[in-house]
From TrEMBL:
Non-allosteric. It comes from Caulifigura coniformis. Diphosphate binds at residue 13. Homodimer. Substrate binds at residues 136-138, 240. Catalyzes the phosphorylation of D-fructose 6-phosphate, the first committing step of glycolysis. Uses inorganic phosphate (PPi) as phosphoryl donor instead of ATP like common ATP-dependent phosphofructokinases (ATP-PFKs), which renders the reaction reversible, and can thus function both in glycolysis and gluconeogenesis. Consistently, PPi-PFK can replace the enzymes of both the forward (ATP-PFK) and reverse (fructose-bisphosphatase (FBPase)) reactions. Mg(2+) binds at residue 108. This is Pyrophosphate--fructose 6-phosphate 1-phosphotransferase. The keyword NADP does not apply. Pathway: Carbohydrate degradation; glycolysis; D-glyceraldehyde 3-phosphate and glycerone phosphate from D-glucose: step 3/4. Keywords: Cytoplasm, Glycolysis, Kinase, Magnesium, Metal-binding, Transferase. Pfam families: PFK. The record marks 109 as: Important for catalytic activity and substrate specificity.
């Protein structure tokens, strides 16, 4: 392929480091001998259909440098589900701007979008190379050790549960329980990450509820009572997508997005944290709190992990390297070399495999009773999020009584 133009976009929900990947793609394209101009699509693939492309090569070097640590999705995002009638006008835009390289930063649905677009382009004789850059705080992309965005989101929820756990411990005479709800439709990676908050036995969280394990109400309430009797309060972390054994959401949500995914806590259903709160209050008569962060773990750069920003940027650069060598229809992956020390490398996986597979928490990472993680998960997580802050623990030594007057 002769020198041509490239197009990059962001899709789905953001992460704290998705713009670092965007900066990586732009920097890589500006250095590539195969790419003339690097364009960006405003609001995902809708920007292509609406002729809303911008020339990222005209941004200043200072802006691109700052982009590497800027949260949210700088180009804007979209959840448009591609239909057959979209492909012809998309290709017309590619011809109009001489776009031969396509980069999209996103999750499963995004990888499916790249695959379908490049497949169509090839079917009508348009030479095109498409490479996906992984992104999701859920960490459920198939074929990669972890996804850029997950480490920072994991640190966010761990910090939240650490601090909320101290509050719950000290306020146990007022509120007997607290529920922290994590995003993540079908995978429990973020609920599991909150276990990094623990420093010693009895620390929050006490009970984890994973989408990978069916929810049993009576068994759950029994566990709640057991923990309360032992610690005086209960810290519960739940994934938003937990379901009963028959597959129905605990949140009772009936709303679905354009890709057919249940929108937990959306109109038509109550959030799972509220449902659990009502369940516990009705069973025990206790007062408690629920905490629902929604999109905050996806855009909190102040809790971002340096490793995460660095890997996200490098993943964008790697995508351009692959495309420049003619390697397409793949997603960049992060792989971990064997051994106790963390040594990541880059690999690839075909887009069509990422599009049809998910990556739930493996069984060896979930405890036998389904309410906690195993040491194997702790070992997996530790190098990704770094150390959490240490807080004071009072000894609560009894006060000395005054000596009786003679």
């Amino acid at each position: 392929m002769s020198r041509a133009n490239a197009l990059v976009g962001q899709s789905g929900g953001p992460t704290s480091v998705i713009n670092a990947s965007l900066a990586g793609v732009v920097d890589g394209a500006l250095r590539s001998r195969k790419i003339e101009h690097i364009y960006g699509m405003r609001y995902g693939i809708e920007g292509v259909l609406n002729d809303a492309l911008v020339d990222l090569g005209r941004e200043s070097s200072e802006t691109l440098k700052l982009l590497r640590k800027t949260p949210s999705s700088a180009l804007g995002s979209s959840r448009l589900k591609l239909k057959d009638e979209h492909f012809e006008p998309i290709l017309a835009q590619f011809r109009k701007y001489d776009i031969r390289y396509l980069f999209l930063i996103g999750g499963n649905d995004t990888m499916d979008t790249i695959h379908r677009i490049t497949e169509y382009a090839h079917s009508v004789g348009w030479d095109m190379t498409g490479v996906g850059v992984p992104k999701t705080v859920d960490n459920d992309l198939f074929g990669t050790d972890h996804t850029p965005g997950f480490p920072s989101a994991a640190r966010y929820v761990a910090m939240s549960v650490l601090q909320a756990g101290l509050l719950a411990r000290d306020m146990q005479k007022v509120d007997q329980f607290v529920i922290f709800q994590c995003i993540g439709r079908s995978a429990g990676w973020l609920p599991a990450a909150t276990t990094a908050a623990r420093e010693q036995s009895g620390d929050a969280p006490h009970i984890l509820l994973f989408p990978e394990r069916p929810f049993d109400k009576e068994r759950f309430l029994g566990k709640v009572r057991e923990v309360h009797e032992e610690h005086g309060f209960v810290s519960i972390v739940c994934g938003e997508g937990i379901t009963y054994a028959d597959g129905s959401p605990v949140s009772a949500s009936e709303t679905k997005d354009k890709f057919g995914n249940v929108e937990f806590g959306a109109m038509g259903g109550t959030s799972v944290a509220v449902t659990l709160h009502q369940m516990i209050s009705k069973a025990f008569g206790w007062r408690g709190e629920f905490q629902i962060t929604e999109s905050l773990p996806m855009c909190a750069a102040d809790r971002g992990v340096k490793l995460d920003f660095r890997e996200a940027y490098r993943a964008g650069r790697q995508a351009v390297k692959l495309a420049s060598k003619g390697t397409g229809d793949v997603m960049v992956t992060l792989q971990r070399k064997p051994g106790r020390s963390y040594h990541p490398t880059f690999g690839t996986i075909p887009l069509k495999e990422v599009a049809v597979h998910a990556r739930p928490m493996p069984d060896e990472f979930i405890s036998e009773d389904g309410y906690d993680v195993t040491p194997a998960f702790t070992e997996y997580l530790e190098p990704l999020i770094g150390e959490l802050p240490e807080y004071a623990r009072l000894k609560y030594k009894p006060a000395k009584k005054a000596e009786a007057e003679e």
